[in-house]
């Protein structure tokens, strides 16, 4: 099977966690030889510093445009200027807890923004090889003790975040069915790894545990997520973009179900082994603090990715142990990044640089 021909790839949300890892993966590790145009609004979760070396090392192949996907005029200009022939759409509001408190921006970016992008793609359909939509497994809702999400599982989103992502999946699918737009969709489980904003479970626990702060565990801590190292997700997306069947969706997962409390304990134990404990603590596990549960908290996610494995030959490479160790080491080595992201200091730099 031959790869799809992609020359000028528009990546939306490329300054965020997965988007920035994806751009690194494409430019540093994959066979992609074209140009990447990264369009990002730079919300609190986006940081162009995530790609600083890429910006200097790949001049002529990497371009950054600060823009909102909800601004169709600006998107159209970018499309024309760079002769875009493929899209990988990551841009989204991505944090469930924020969606519970302030759903508005989730509706705007995840639904309306995706609609604008699809409309633009439709208007440029004759030049477009692919629109890849990056989705989440959270659209399927919650599993009980047993079973897996397959591509056939009915959508049952439980949070404003997952409902907005479900809506964007449906729009992408509908644009394929109705307008024959060349769409592929992936639905992936929880990612972890470098550059994840420290509001999500793994980086939050690593940093709090380092600093001797309480480690908040929602409810009874027995909720299950299927964790996937971010590089494995990036490799899966690139494979689907090259070889996936148009109009199809592919589940991506880590085959790695872990209870939240186990993740938190593992991080505590690994840090105890390598980094001096905060004073008065025998073990960082003493910092674990059970807090009020998240409303509508999905109990268990588990992905059946046999379609992706069977049809395209993808399997995750990173084990959970090595992935968590690498991630902890990355946060230890990037304290300056953490401080700048947490204080919001980088936003001032962004304003000066890009207006
Ligand atoms: P993130 O929050 O780290 O990054 C999102 C990026 O999108 C940021 O750079 C942000 O500035 C940008 N953005 C937000 N609104 C925008 C707008 N209106 N216009 C342009 N850019 C905008 O998110 P992430 O964890 O990297 O997730 C990326 C995608 O992958 C999302 O679509 C998410 O739903 C999906 N996903 C995430 C996970 C996960 O575990 N993180 C799992 C499966 C799927
Ligand atoms: P999160 O990283 O927010 O991802 P998602 O909600 O998209 O799965 O949360 C992962 C799991 O960890 C989820 O079950 C909620 C739980 N959690 C906590 O127990 N404490 C926390 O402080 C956070 C942020 C999450």
Provide a short characterization of the protein structure.
This protein has 355 residues and is α/β, with parallel strands linked by helices.
Structural description of this entry:
With 355 residues, this protein is an alpha/beta fold. The chain has a domain at 8-193 and 230-255 and 296-317 and 344-354: NAD(P)-binding Rossmann-like Domain (Rossmann fold, 3-Layer(aba) Sandwich), CATH 3.40.50. It is 44% helix and 15% strand. The protein contains 13 helices and 13 strands. It has helices spanning 17-29, 52-57, 72-82, 96-101, 104-123, 160-179, 201-211, 230-243, 260-274, 306-312, 320-333, 335-343, 345-354, and strands spanning 8-12, 35-40, 62-66, 86-89, 130-136, 183-188, 191-192, 215-218, 224-226, 228-229, 249-252, 257-259, 288-291. The strands form four sheets. It has a seven-stranded parallel sheet, sandwiched between helices. A two-stranded parallel sheet has the order 7-10. Helix 2 links the parallel strand 2 and strand 3. The radius of gyration is 20 Å and the shape is globular. Thymidine-5'-diphosphate binds next to helix 7 and strand 8.
- The CATH class of the domain at 8-193 and 230-255 and 296-317 and 344-354 is Alpha Beta
The run of helices and strands is EHEHEHEHHEHEEHEEEHEEHEHHHH
Superfamily (CATH H level) name of the domain at 8-193 and 230-255 and 296-317 and 344-354: NAD(P)-binding Rossmann-like Domain
The CATH architecture name of the domain at 8-193 and 230-255 and 296-317 and 344-354 reads 3-Layer(aba) Sandwich
Please mark out the parts with pLDDT under 50 across 5 or more consecutive residues, or reply none.
Answer: none
Write down the CATH topology of the domain at 8-193 and 230-255 and 296-317 and 344-354.
Rossmann fold
- Cofactors, ions and other ligands in the entry: nicotinamide-adenine-dinucleotide, thymidine-5'-diphosphate
- Report the portion of residues in β strands: 15-25%
Cα shape = globular
Q: What's the gyration radius in Å?
A: 20 Å
What is the count of β-strands? 13
Distance between the termini: 45 Å
Helix amount: 40-55%
Largest sheet: 7 strands, parallel
Compute the number of helices. 13
Strand order of the largest sheet: 3-2-1-4-5-6-11
Oligomer: single chain
SSE-based structural type: alpha/beta
Can you give the mean pLDDT? 96
